[in-house]
Amino acid sequence: MNKDLAGPTAPVTGAADLAGRTALITGATAGIGRATALALAGRGARVIVHGRDRERAEATLRRIEEAGGSARFEPADLTRPAEVTALAERAGDVDILVNNAGVFHFAHTADTDQTTFDTHVEVNLRAPYLLVQALAPAMAKRGHGAIVNVSSGAATTPGHGTGVYGATKAALESLTRTWAAEYGPAGVRVNAVAAGPTRTEGTAAFGDAFEAAGRSVALGRLADAGEIAAAVAFLASPSASYVNGTTLSAVGGLPAHG
Ligand SMILES: NC(=O)c1ccc[n+]([C@@H]2O[C@H](COP(=O)([O-])OP(=O)(O)OC[C@H]3O[C@@H](n4cnc5c(N)ncnc54)[C@H](OP(=O)(O)O)[C@@H]3O)[C@@H](O)[C@H]2O)c1
């Protein structure tokens, strides 16, 4: 275990339980994806950092390499299906797939234009679908694999302006159950983590309203990206060897009403 990679809130397993495994993490150039890349590399996985922004990717790679981990960058724009399938080909034999990349442009239904609708479906739903389609059959052939989809509390709880976003995440949770049933018999586990409001590059612009979202969960605060990564890493690891088809709630708990 590389302690330097773990970060203050990453899992401390005391073992390199992902040694010899290759993990593809989409959207690992920032936020929850970067924290997940650090957590999985800290447990010994060879990490494929996906994203678009080369500078951000290099920052992730540097942190992994400085701590003695192994990683490489594979860029792809997930709105383009040909780039998604090319990414899967370049990734090769993947033991762990984390479908983390996502967009969240919040607007009420009447104010949601078609491009916004389409981008959510393309990045949050179609890209994970294409990656599972391309990579899960080979995992099944090898007899092992773990897929973790990063969902959101918005999949099940309505929020202001989260309609399309939440719908894509609800669909991803549904696919999680379907894929678990399809690939489970071959030894491939598929699970999801529903994240609560988390401090990341993507949410930095939300400001005070976001801090209020943190205060509204039972724990009364925002999550650190490493705390969500810890849940993802658990599901990706042998510690979750009999966990399949579930969505692990990491939303900070529901507050009491009344
Ligand atoms: N933060 C939260 O409060 C929260 C809560 C619940 C769920 N989630 C989910 O957690 C995941 C990560 O969220 P985050 O807050 O960490 O996001 P973030 O800081 O905005 O980072 C998003 C990542 O996704 C990549 N990405 C976005 N659009 C892409 C595209 N078209 N093609 C390729 N890569 C693309 C970005 O890559 P580049 O920058 O390199 O382009 C970046 O690495 C998302 O699925 C999100 O829905 C987040």
Automatic annotation (TrEMBL):
Enzyme class: oxidoreductase
Domain spans labelled Ketoreductase: 21-196
Annotated protein name in UniProt: SDR family NAD(P)-dependent oxidoreductase
One Pfam family in the UniProt entry: adh_short_C2
Family: Belongs to the short-chain dehydrogenases/reductases (SDR) family.
Keyword line: Oxidoreductase
Annotated EC: 1.1.1.-
CDD domains for this protein: SDR_c (cd05233)
InterPro entries with a match to the protein in the record: KR_dom, NAD(P)-bd_dom_sf, Sc_DH/Rdtase_CS, SDR_fam
MF terms (GO), sorted A to Z: oxidoreductase activity
Superkingdom field: Bacteria
UniProt source species: Nonomuraea salmonea
